[in-house]
Fold:
Amino acid sequence: MIWLALISAGFVTFFTRFSMIALLKKDYFSPRIKLVLSYVPSAVFPAIIFPAIFLNSTGQLTFVDNPKILAALIAVLIGYLTENVIATIFSGLAVLWLLIFLT
Amino acid sequence: MKIKLRIFILGCKDVIPLLIPVVPFGIIFGVIGIESGLGATITFLMSMIIFAGSSQLAFAQLFTSGATIPVIVSSVAIINSRHFLYSAVIAQYLTKLKLFWKIILSYFLTDQAFIVSQKYFKNQLNNKFRHYHLLGSGFTLWFIWQLSTIAGIVVGEVIPKELNLAFAIPLTFISLIIVDMKKIDHLIVAITSGVFAVIFFNLPLRTYIIVAAAAGILVAYGLTHTKFFKK
Structure:
């Protein structure tokens, strides 16, 4: 089951890279398609981010007693100020650890 | 022969500055792969077969939450749909190459390799060996990605579960989009997607990720029509 998922995901990913190289002689994409594609990360990643922060292990919205919210907010703030990938990730983890282990 | 090697090495060198975030990202993926119960073999093979970091993380996350194959594969497809853009831009420089070359170079077409090699191609319109640059940048990134994944797998085997390292998944995704969040249009798209994901989280088969991404892309498409956001 996982093998099938892995092989299919690999095939699909290769297709996204190979398709246009195989088909096109020129760059035919319209500026609008390019513009919409440039929004893809902003449209997909929050679908993973939000549930991982705001929902508990049973899938319920949790605002009280949820250390992940403050940790994520600090990470967003640090990321916003530094634009540094590593600083963003580790500031969030550090705050989460502080909240879990010190309280 | 010598000129091919020189262009290949230039490609390797050009991509090096972009590798700095790739190393921790690969390590995090290796750790998460182990934490998610994918096992060392699958985790490593995922970096070889898929070779696209953010979609690999999403794969691990969805797999542990019990998503079905169609949901996992379509989520990977959506995340990697940005490659269509790279593929379309790069295509014009590779038209004269044999199919074998096109297959190899497609496999290596990552965000970082695209950024540096596209810049190089633009100024090499009459250089028939220019594709060696993409081979160099792509191969270097590939090599570092595999090494970092292995390092992450090794670390993941010894790290205690209490550290909640799965939380590194949303944090990594935050770090990938945070710069775009300074633009109001991207912020609107992101909040739409996030809110949809939370509202529709309990849809069967973990399809919320597809629904949320579709909502985000629709809003993005709408925004490209508004005068205010015309670029």
Q: What stands out?
A: Chain A touches chain B through 69 residues (CB under 8 Å). Chain A has a mean pLDDT of 91. The two ends of chain A are 41 Å apart (CA to CA).
